[in-house]
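Before the break, one more example. Copy the sequence into your notebook; we will annotate it together after we see the structure.
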Amino acid sequence: MKKFLDLISEEMKQAFEASGYDRELGKVTLSNRPDLCEYQCNGAMAGAKLYKKAPLMIAQDVAEKCKDSKAFSSVEAVPPGFLNLKVKESFVTDYLTKMCHEPKFGLEMPENPSRIIVDYGGPNVAKPLHVGHLRSAVIGESIKRIARYAGHDVIGDIHLGDWGLQMGLIITELKERQPDLLYFDDTYQGDYPKEAPFTISELEEIYPTASNKSKEDPAYKERAMEATFKLQSGVRGYRALWDHIISVSVADLKKNYQDLNVDFDLWKGESDVHDVIPGMVDYMKKEGYAYISDGALVVDVKEETDTKEIPPCMILKSDGASLYNTTDLATIMERMREYHPDRMIYLTDKRQELYFEQVFRCARKTKLVEPETDLLHIGFGTMNGKDGKPFKTREGGVMRLEILIKEINDEMYRKITDNRQVDEEEARQTAKVVALSAIKYGDLSNQASKDYIFDIDKFTSFEGDTGPYILYTIVRIKSILNKIKEQGGTLEGAVLRQADSDAEKALMLEMAGFNAMMETAYQESAPHKICAYIFELANAFNRFYHETKIVAEENEEKKSGWVALLLLTRDILETCIDVLGFAAPERM
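Here is what the structure looks like once it is written out:
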């Protein structure tokens, strides 16, 4: 189904062509003066130089050709040469009626869907999720959902940090505390216990303790490096301990991500490509891509057009150890082999921009990806506190993500139960749903690359540009529809009618822009475009609601038209919040 703006642009292009001008001058845009008109066309201004004619004369010629337009109720040429446009109510109604009957409201599906991998987790096992993990999870989940809604085959991968020295540190500290564990007996040949010799709480305490010890005690660090080597060499007991670390950590991670309504298709990590790395390194050496520089194995990735220094991409350190670069390149190679993606999207802090530039260039230069494979890094800004500095606890430490979620849940519960009697269980459940909207909308309504202030008071407000305001609007629509049913009315067979008021028409025009907005949000990987759209849509609905006595309307035909309008508004809003990664309750 064609986008609404394209349809009215086509009408204007025909008018330009019929007037003897280049049809491409007829592009229509949203009005920057909504007090004067709904849409505008500036083509006459651009055509003045081309045709050596006053722009107002060109605009008047075109306006004359639009007198019998099927799309426009008003086409006005105004100095110095703008065309101010208003659309016919019947044209908007017909378009929305078609949207109602089309899958995904008529959003055009791709002829050849892309396969996309979104890498948006990146937590280290054995460490709790903290607020620094919020943005990659929230933005990545939304980008995955937007791409799926746009008709593409999308795979979300958590890409765990589950290999390397941190594992050796944990195993070393366990050995110091429990040296008699079977896992450290080299002569033991039996099966290892199914239960881990530690809880998630113990594990989360062990890692920072071990990390601090290694910084102060060189001998301890040496033992940790030896334990890492044994693990990576396949020593049975160490591998069995590693399995326990992974299973305990992943179970906890799944619970925390579930609280954020974030779901990964793949739970792979750096360990999955450990056995791939030697072959990749040999290939890079053999093909002449990699060479030794100061003892390290590197690949040059600088290009002649570079205006800044781009250092070589290091593949192996001088001691032969691999790095993040190595595992990321091996992961790219494995993903190409297993999934053949057309595109790979990485979500990380924007400060890693240079790192990904190096890795992507290296992957292209060494032909680990096809020439047409798109590699995209989306770097996001910092989530800051009200003081403008990275978000911290009151004590100045990094806040655990589950603590942040609990604080917002409690604040929403307080607001929901304030000055009224509400069922405890229902209030808690509603608070959880609304709190998630506050967190996600608060993040996603900002352009990803920008830093933003995480303001709990603002984000949990039921007024203004917030998640709770959007949910309140959806719940208001549901409440009106329920009242109509309670009074014996029906929602079945409701048919859209032409708008009776400016507020009703404005609401309909907002909905007519859904397809163009969703297409842009996908193309630009931009969830904030959806947030901006639903805020305007919610505002348009609330203006219409305050001006219209919907439930009390006695004209059944008019009331039925409004029911159809409410159903479409509700469905579009709920579709949008679903791709943003949250939902609306039935009541608030």
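The chain has a mean pLDDT of 95. The chain is about 50% helix and 10% strand. Try to locate both features in your own notes.
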